[in-house]
Amino acid sequence: MSYLNKYDTPTPTPIPADIHSQTPVSEYDQNFVFPVKVLRSDRVELRPFIPSEHATILQDGLNQDMLEWLPLELKPEGLYAFIEKSFRSNPAFLWHAIYTSLDPNPTPDQYEIAGTIGMINASVADQGAELGWIMILPKFQKTHTLTHAAGTMMHRILDSPTSGGLGLRRCQWFTNSLNDKSKSAALRLGFTHEGTLRAHRVLPLGKNGARDGREGEKQDLKSRDSWLASVIWTEWEGGVRDHVDKLMARR
């Protein structure tokens, strides 16, 4: 007996290389499942990413080391298409430009772009979101920038709506099992390691993963094991929020 199966691999819609490179802020639709606004601590601002304002500045500051764990090319054309495909067209993804200053007592007009951070895999149904696509430009590495950007995003995800947050139940952190710096950052911020998903994702050509490809389709592409950690709302309210706030209060 045969069974009917008309499935065919969808043909991707071509994305113009310069898509939204000229779209002004007022006309750029973030297309995100939760409300969108600027997020702030006393040392950073997380501004929703606008390609026409941020893409070229970000691209000019990138280097190959920053992209070791990310499937992104050092070309502005690739960046515009990537933002459209991976963020704007996916309602579960919202990217932010991180703005800050190395001045110990800055005013917002002294802020400059320091990197990016995303709220990704956001789910209304499951009441959770993930921190991801974090890139810190070289000038701002080993400063307050990552702590404040991640801490501010954790507040947005886990704080109650009356405190300016989304009141979600889970904030998670996924990373390549070989990315020791990312794992250390998550643990420092109070995330709890939950486990490792083996052979979890097939990586682009040239990217490093824990496992070689299997003979057959995509055999030249490695797989990564994914290291998973999280903070849930009871942990946040039970001490992790205070821990993060103490980290952010350091000078």
UniProtKB/TrEMBL annotation:
It comes from the Eukaryota. One of its GO terms (molecular function) is protein-N-terminal-alanine acetyltransferase activity. Pfam families: Acetyltransf_3. Residues 43-192 form the N-acetyltransferase domain. Residues 1-21 are annotated as: Disordered. InterPro entries: Acyl_CoA_acyltransferase (IPR016181), GNAT_dom (IPR000182), Ribosomal_N-acetyltransferase (IPR051908). This is N-acetyltransferase domain-containing protein. It comes from Naematelia encephala.
